[in-house]
Amino acid sequence: MISSTSSFVLGIDVGTSGVRSVAVTATGEVLAEARAPLSDLPAVGAAHEQDAGAWWSAVCQTIQELRRSLDPGGRWRRLAGVAMTSTSGSLVLADAQGEPVRPAMLYDDGRAGSIASELNGRLPAGETPINASYSLAKALWVRQHEPLNWARATYILHPADWLNSRLTGQLGICDYSNALKLGYDHEKGDWIPAVGLADIPASMFPRVVAPGDQVGTFSATASEQTGVAAGIPVIAAASDGLASLVGSGASEPGHANTTLGTTLVWKVLTAATPRLGPGMYCHHLPNHLRVPGAASNTGPGSLRLEHAGATPEEMDRRAAAYLPTLVQCYLLGSRGERFPFLNPRADAFFEGPAASPEEAYAAQLQSLACVERWGYERLEACGVAVGTEVFSAGSAASSPVLSQLRANILNRNVLRGANPTASFGAAILTAATVLFGGDLTAAIRSMSRVIQSHAPQPEAVEQYEKAYRLFRTACARRAME
Fold first, then answer.
1. 243-289, pLDDT tens digit by residue?
2. Which of these, 149, 96, 127, lies nearest to 198 by C-alpha position?
3. Cα dihedral 127, 86, 141, 96 sign
4. Could you tell me the CATH superfamily of domain 8-241?
5. CATH class given for the domain over 250-419+449-477
6. By the number of CB atoms within 10 A of the CB, which of 274, 352, 408, 472 ranks highest?
7. What is the pLDDT of residues 314-340, one digit of tens each?
């Protein structure tokens, strides 16, 4: 244990369903954490929106809760820095004063699909295409469908960018991981050709900084609303997927990370420049490692419990007896998939009959693991070296049944850290800057530890190989390739 006078940092994750804030020391001890729920706005069709003002209220609420937890012991005075992470590709359009001109469009808002396709059709061969998940495509949708709102907009931002501006009073700053889906190419230090074809005024685009860079300090106004002293550094974090990778404990080339949140997200650490395929992107970490990856529309958020009142843990236990299963399915909350294949018209399917609700649930878990393997195979086909260890993040990563299933299907060791969350990753990125002299690798190794490890079971690997091939065949019958 560390002394009560040791410094600590805050990591804040603004996720789809809520805000989670954690106070963490340089040794990875979580001193306190707080959560606040978020709700979607009513929507029709492919729309998915939230009120940015609700994010700010939730952020303030969680920070105030942390202060109440730590103030009695005097620890709050040792706060050294704060960083914020949020969903990648979500869009906030703000006016000159930083006020949102319309509700935020979340990462999986699908309304910009046709606009992205039209823009891609004008790109020169070989240039990076965009899709509906890009904040760039969402901005173009607003320009085309809501010209009055577009006319009021001064800044194109992402949730973390906008929230950082509320903390510091500094507008128009974005880290390069969030800027990726706005069209920023960190490798070249410039915007991709799609941005030029979009014909958006350059003044609307943010100034791009690196994760770990200081973007300002708490303003007097933010201090009054949060209880954080004015002048405390605010550090640029990263998108939630990249922050989850950092929080998982992955730190070396070859380390892979799967985030099992609402959706599936793949990341792999590599020192080499990857050759990207459709649906892939490449982040960078400030420890000079590249992070090729991708994100799916399927994931644990699409799991369906067949027994009213049964918890996911109980359903996992019941399903274990049916694994592996010959029942095949693909989970999608709505139409369309982006990775490991791109098909905006793809629909969920279920091939039964399942012998029981437990087997139906087993098929869903197996489907998630099969999609995960498919994604890593896609990355390997592009020359990305995936090692023998897959670190896990997200709420579903805590399931021992799903973790063992994944190990058997992936034929790799599946590891889970003590705090494999985006908020913890944001805390590590903060600490790397303010407590570790900019050494991110040292911060990851000091603050994270593996608490769960699942190795592939040799007697099961062959059985799951058959299940995986049947899964891919079922997908191919529906042109999901």
1. 989 999 999 999 999 989 888 999 999 999 888 888 898 889 988 89
2. 127
3. negative
4. ATPase, nucleotide binding domain (3.30.420.40)
5. alpha beta
6. 408
7. 999 999 999 999 999 999 988 889 899
